[in-house]
Write a structure and sequence with these properties.
Elements lengths: L38 H7 L8 H19 L12 H14 L3 E2 L4 E2 L7 H13 L3 H27 L2 H12 L2 H6 L6 H31 L23 H14 L8 H20 L4 H26 L2 H5 L8 H4 L8 H19 L11 H4 L6 E6 L9 E7 L3 H4 L2 H15 L2 H22 L13 H16 L9 H38 L3 E2 H6 L9
Antiparallel strand pairs: 1-2, 3-4, 4-5
Helix pairs in contact: 2-5, 2-6, 3-4, 4-5, 5-6, 5-8, 6-19, 8-9, 8-10, 9-11, 10-11, 10-18, 17-18, 17-19, 18-19, 19-20
Amino acid sequence: MSAAPTADTDPLPAGTPPVIDAERRPAPPAEEAGSGIPAVVRRRLAPLDARLDPYSWYAAGLVTFIAAVIRLLNLSTPRGKIFDEVYYATDAHNLLIHGVEWDDKNNTAGYVVHPPLGKWMIALGERIFGYHEFGWRISAAVVGIISVLLLTRIARRMFGSTVLGCAAGLLMAFDGMHFVLSRTALLDIFLMFFVLASFGALVLDRDSRRRRWLRAMEDGLDPSQPGRAGRPPFTWPGSVPWWRLFAAVLLGCGLGVKWSAVWFAPVFLLLIIWWEVGARRSAGVRRPWRDMFLDEIGWLALCAVLIVGTYLATWSGWFVTDDGYFRHWLRDTGHRELPVIGALQNLWHYHHEAYKFHSTLTAKHTYQSWPWQWLLLGRPVAFHWSGDGPCGAPSCASEVLLLGTPALWWSFIPALGGLAWLGISRRDWRAAAIGLGVAAGLLPWFWFALKGRTMFAFYALPAEPFLVLAVVFVLGAIMNPAPGWGETAATESSGMFDRRVVGAVILGAYVLVVAACFAYFYPIYTGEVIPYSDWSARMWLGGRWI
């Protein structure tokens, strides 16, 4: 964040991180000797310094270790199936036995309205460790831990700063909502994981594609030439956008957990198009939109195929058995059922019925909430409650409350305001990418709220990584004002260090406040038996949290 960017350029000089980092290197000269590429073009096309930095990995490993310890400690507590574990842990167990979800009471296929991949991931833990609390929760814990590592490295990649990357990881590690869902056999942690991983792959794709243009220009490519002469030649395997294709597979897996991953598909498509056009503009292509369409339409079509193909693959258990719900709907209703095509028609009917269920779900629930309440923590969800002791007091309480860490979640709203202001004023691609991720995770639910659909606070989890990135973006801006924000070249060398030190203190203090807040609420995140008075003291918003 130390240079004034344009809308289609990387706001950082090539390899120059925005905070104090060991891998800082000086800005390039006006023109690289012998390359013929203007320094400004090189800066715009060169991704952040991607050299292997063992210290950043050590730091990320430490953050991940912290997340792992607090998530795995006493994972089997509380005992029994809490909240919707009664459905998903049971469905996972039946997948291992029957290959499809099963109705044990009627001894027939079970009718479920979510795809099976998340339940298969829960089933993996049950298969390895057994059908008990640790077995059905361990997959969520592992995925939650890995997601902390992913966010740490994604933030490190986007901001070019190990400090900011670790801050992002720690904020997620100490978030109560992410923590509770990492210790519960529900689907949302898997959905969030695949969405975040897909976004991370797209960030790597952006770097890879810009690097391809830069290398082609170093080899003598003149992007101002018309037609194929002005575009990098196709080579195998170097010209294949592997990270983009991998992102498509990951997004297909997200859809295989919950359909709400679909809202990220148009956002990710927009990011790909925007970044590809921006790369061509930076390179000097005369018609960047036309050339982007000619070069990328095939790859984008392949991405669509991979998303659909991956999603269908998550239904393999349903396809290979005869027992799945609606598996032979055509045959059972007296219609002709062709091989393969008939199975797809049956699955389409299943999806149609499931969609009707989702679109008409308006039943009242004690812990339902509306999207405008989520960032305010207006209505958390009680996963478990018991008044049994002992706790050393006349009255005891044990609760698992799905509640985001207040010090973190109540900072999201001002952070989004800062993200919008800084993103527009600095024309920073990172702000737009983060904001679009937040929009994909939250805005669709406002539309469903107008229809009165029943929904819960944990629906916001896929947006959380982007919300954390918004906070870190603003904190990074405090540490590193861009030139033109009151900092001149003359004052930068004398004043920037002090600004960074002050900003680093603010960043560190904020992370410590979030960690302390998490520690205070830890007993009601884990179902610890505490005196009723201690439990009541943590109900900051009174009846809204009870």
